């Protein structure tokens, strides 16, 4: 396929995802306003000029995504990766789950779990219906719906945002040029359903990959998705990121995507310190999470709305938090910050 044609195909594919996300949200919020009018009053409407700026940021994100594939950071095929089978299988279930989500949101039930779900042994901050999700992160149904929910939430840009960790990750690994690719170890903290690990596998086909998460259901889903792709299977472990079950200085690189806004402030520091401990001297730590007020004040209204409409108990605090200060406190240096659409990236190095 010529470059122009494949770029056009990519843009059309992304536009399709965007229209789908918008259509889903418009229809479901109209229905919600009819059935639960009080919920419809939550979150301020987003002004037209902010919507315009958001569209500009999406265009920039997609351009960078395309360019990184052209530069060979990852194969072009990754741009078109979409879990189609899951989409057709689970979209109807996602719709069927919506009335329960509204009910929980209206009654402000934030810690509601089915009797068969084991909640003992998890930290209390974690036993929550984040985003009003049925059974939080603790059921197989939740794991099956999660990727689709996130893609709809971000109008199809969740994967392009996740992919922005790949260039700094590969750049950071250059510090270990003498290490054979097979001996390169990369850990993804809070790997969830394995979406980021799948991308890292495409960018680093030979590296040894590791994933850690608190949710057994999400790890089962990750194992299932990652088993379907060629290459060595990443090693997945159920553990709390506050006590990473790995040796000191073990990984050449550590990544974490969309975790920190779901942690209380004190836990954010502990997790950063753990990531520092397991990173090799000279290694890189790449965080991707939500934008913050300090560098994206023009999107304050969207951040406010996210905190209010979704159940995200630590998000507001996160938007004010100084993660650079936290990373420095843990011992990281040469910290670079980037912003792409609704995500912010912290690229930090452990002194060699
Ligand atoms: C918003 S999801 C992000 C998942 C994935 N990284 C992604 O890109 O979609 C947050 C994830 O963090 C995990 N998590 C939350 N607190 C954790 C902790 N203390 N230790 C390990 N995992 C945690 C959850 O189980 C969930 O899979």
Describe the structure.
This protein has 352 residues and is an alpha/beta fold. It contains 13 helices and 7 strands. A 7-stranded mixed beta sheet has the order 3-2-1-4-5-7-6, sandwiched between helices. β1, α8 (195-203) and β2 (208-213) form a beta-alpha-beta unit. α4 crosses α5 (140-153), α5 crosses α9 and α10 (265-278) crosses α13. The protein is globular and about 60 Å long. It starts with a helix and ends with a strand. S-adenosylmethionine binds at residues 126, 137, 150, 162, 190-192, 195-196, 213-215, 218, 240-242, 257-259, 262.
SSE order, as H and E?
A: HHHHHHHEHEHEEHEHHHEE
Approximate shape? globular
Question: How many DSSP-defined strands?
Answer: 7
* End-to-end CA span: 44 Å
Order of strands side by side in the largest beta sheet? 3-2-1-4-5-7-6
Helical region count?
A: 13
Report the major sheet. Answer: 7 strands, mixed
Q: Name the poorly predicted regions.
A: none
Amount of helix: 40-55%
Distinct small molecules bound, one entry per kind: S-adenosylmethionine
Secondary structural class: alpha/beta
Radius of gyration: 20 Å
Mean pLDDT: 93
Task: Give the percentage of residues in beta strands.
Answer: 5-15%
Domain Methyltransferase: 186-283
InterPro entries: Methyltransf_25, SAM-dependent_MTases_sf
Pfam families: Methyltransf_25
GO biological process, one term: methylation
């Amino acid at each position: 396929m010529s470059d122009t044609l494949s770029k056009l195909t990519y843009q059309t594919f992304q536009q399709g995802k965007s229209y789908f996300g918008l259509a889903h949200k418009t229809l479901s919020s109209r229905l919600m306003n009819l059935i639960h009018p009080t919920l419809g009053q939550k979150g301020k409407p987003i002004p037209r000029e902010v919507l315009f700026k958001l569209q500009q940021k999406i265009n920039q994100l997609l351009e960078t995504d395309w360019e990184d594939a052209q530069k060979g950071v990852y194969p072009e095929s990754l741009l078109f990766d979409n879990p189609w089978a899951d989409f057709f299988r689970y979209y109807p279930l996602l719709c069927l789950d919506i009335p329960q989500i509204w009910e929980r949101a209206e009654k402000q039930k934030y810690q509601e779990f089915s009797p068969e779900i084991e909640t003992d042994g998890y930290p209390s901050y974690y036993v929550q219906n984040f985003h009003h999700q049925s059974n939080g992160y603790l059921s197989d149904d939740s794991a099956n719906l999660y990727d689709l929910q996130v893609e709809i939430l971000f109008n199809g840009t969740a994967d392009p945002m996740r992919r922005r960790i790949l260039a700094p990750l590969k750049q950071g690994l250059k510090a270990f040029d003498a290490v054979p690719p097979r001996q390169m170890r990369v850990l993804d903290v809070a790997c969830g359903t394995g979406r980021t690990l799948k991308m890292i596998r495409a960018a680093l086909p030979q590296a040894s990959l590791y994933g850690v998460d608190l949710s057994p259901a999400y790890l089962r889903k990750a194992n299932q998705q990652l088993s379907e792709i060629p290459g060595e299977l990443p090693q997945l472990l159920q553990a709390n990121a506050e006590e990473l079950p790995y040796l000191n200085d073990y990984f050449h690189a550590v990544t974490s995507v969309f975790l920190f806004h779901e942690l209380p402030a004190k836990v954010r520091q502990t997790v950063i310190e753990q990531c520092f401990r397991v990173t090799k001297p000279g290694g890189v730590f790449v965080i991707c999470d939500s934008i913050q007020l300090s560098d994206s004040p023009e999107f304050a209204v969207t951040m406010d709305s996210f905190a209010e409409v979704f159940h995200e108990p630590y998000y507001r605090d996160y938007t004010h938090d100084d993660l650079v200060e936290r990373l420095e406190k843990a011992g990281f240096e040469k910290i670079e910050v980037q912003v792409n659409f609704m995500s912010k990236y912290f690229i930090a190095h452990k002194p060699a």
